[in-house]
Amino acid sequence: MFGIIQVELYNPPVYEIATHNLAKKFRRIFPLGASPVVAVDGVDLRIERGEIYGFLGPNGAGKTTTIKMMLGLVRPSAGSVEIPGGIRARDGRYRLGAVLEGNRNIYFRLTVSENLRYFGMLRGMKPSEIGGRTDELLSFFDLDEKRHATAQTLSRGMQQKLAFAAATIHDPEILLLDEPTLGLDVATARAIQVKLRELAHKHGKAILLTTHQMDLAQAVSDRVGIVNKGKLVAEDTVDGLMGLFKRMAYTFETRTSDIERVGLALSGFEHTISESRRPGLALVTVQLQDSKDVFRLTRALEAQGVIPERLSESVPNLEDVFISFTGEGAEGTNARARGGDVE
Amino acid sequence: MTGIACIFNITWAEFVRRWWMVIRYPVDYFTGIISLYLLFVGVFYGVAGNFGQAAPGLDRTLDSLVLGTCMWFFSIAIMNQVRVILEMEAVTGTLEQLFLVPYRFVVILMVRSITGFVFAFLAVAILLVLIMATTGRWLSFPILPAILVLVLAALGIQGVALIMGGLSLVFKRLGQLNMIVQFGFLFLAFPPIENLAPGWQTVAYTFPLSRGMTLLRGLVVDGWQWTDQAVALNLASLVFNSVIYLVIGWLFYLASERIAKDHGLLGHY
């Protein structure tokens, strides 16, 4: 008479948004018979709660198309986007927020507070909630004094801050930000970095961020994905990615007149010599197999009478990692010859 | 927040936003009324002057002219709602942000159309009073039935508006096509379709607005009573016509939105 009671222990996934083999080919109508353009080619992403995911890639790599597919603004050709908690919170609020294409996200003819009020209501906030939230955001972004100014009268940086505020007015759980600090002054960009960390690490938001500013990506990202020609070519924590390239390397400067002797001293070491920024000096990078080689290196230099200046350990940064995976600089320019600490 | 509360919320948001725009840019809003008023005054006195006050049937013609002007303005205002929203929002860059809401974007379009209807209705009321005061021809008509006909006619026009909106989502700029459609509405708003030859009449009645104009002319100019059989027949035909246009417009818009998302056109302008 008693049935078996089944208790399912459901562990909800900790990720907020994920893509599965996401792909997009844009078919061209003209010219007839033109082959489709592959913008995104099988990208798997998973953005977890409380995480900032830096999504990096050169221009045209497919970052914006991926974000737009995640937001439902572009239909994927294949694959899917998964939002385990759905797009609507229990109280009716929209769970996603996005800043797209810089400052073109706001009504230029409305005032700062009108923009926030309008977008808040549109995204399911109760009118009574909006006032307090508006005060909080305006104070944070230092826009209090501009509350009643129309958006068109603001500077570009302020418009960008307003766009950021409008995207977060409804306190979304998932934030997708396409170049959110583009055109901002240093102080404001830093403030946004602080805000991003606070949103992710204190309030548990899942944030995906695209940027060409490697220092920003390195400073705020918990994990980084590098996309090139539509494919995700690398993904790891910032330290993990840099660890891939971290070899024991030392750099020092020496007088250009000593280069011949340097060559003799380093004949048993993998090394590169390039031009230093300081006139009359050359920059030397030496790869070592293990830490004992430091002694061998100093003895070899001493034997040739070479005095190394500014001797230091060479540490790769995210930009080096980026260049090695994409073959391009952060601004989309071709990589220049570098000191040799990264292959 | 439940679905209905959510709809109420965005309706309120849209009314407030539109009101902000009217008070911030009153010239934008009232210039439309004034330019149409001036156009009307020119046509009205042209017709009256050419035919002379004693011409047979002139009273009916002039009353129809008053009504036709208001309805034409009303049709254009409604029809432009969707297209202008999509074109302007794409140019300013806010169109994609309007898709980032917890419901389908077409809901916003419909809500905006409703607010547009209310503001267009207010503008038409102002225009009608101005015209009647200028010409001294005070039309008396049953207001509630006239509003019902107006709403039903607006639904059919909304169908055309959704088709134009769908096209503008894909093709972005439709200025010239829009002008042609506006002139089309001119032909539907002014000539008395009920006096056309039966074949042409049938053709004209397949378009939106035409049946509504016949009804309004009957109620406002010819003194039809709400209980007349002609009113019931025309009303049934108007409902049918408007529903068909609305459904076609809705489906067309959804198909266009799908194409725009397929080709990544939402952010283009």
Structural description of this entry:
The complex is a heterodimer of chains A (343) and B (269). Chain A is α/β, with parallel strands linked by helices and 343 residues long. Chain A is built from ten helices and 13 strands. Chain A folds into two domains: 15-242, Rossmann fold; 247-314, Alpha-Beta Plaits (2-Layer Sandwich), CATH 3.30.70. Chain A has a six-stranded mixed beta sheet with strand order 5-6-7-3-8-9, with helices on both faces. A four-stranded antiparallel beta sheet of chain A has the order 11-12-10-13, with no helix packed on it. A three-stranded antiparallel beta sheet of chain A has the order 2-1-4, covered by helices on one side. In chain A, helix 2 (112-122) crosses helix 3 and helix 2 runs parallel beside helix 4 (156-168). The longest helix of chain A has 17 residues, at 186-202. Chain B has one domain. Chain B has helices at 3-24, 26-51, 58-92, 95-99, 105-135, 143-171, 175-189, 198-205, 210-221, 229-262. The model of chain B has no long low-confidence stretch (mean pLDDT 83). Classes of the chains: A alpha/beta (343), B mainly alpha (269). The interface between A and B is large, with 43 and 32 residues.
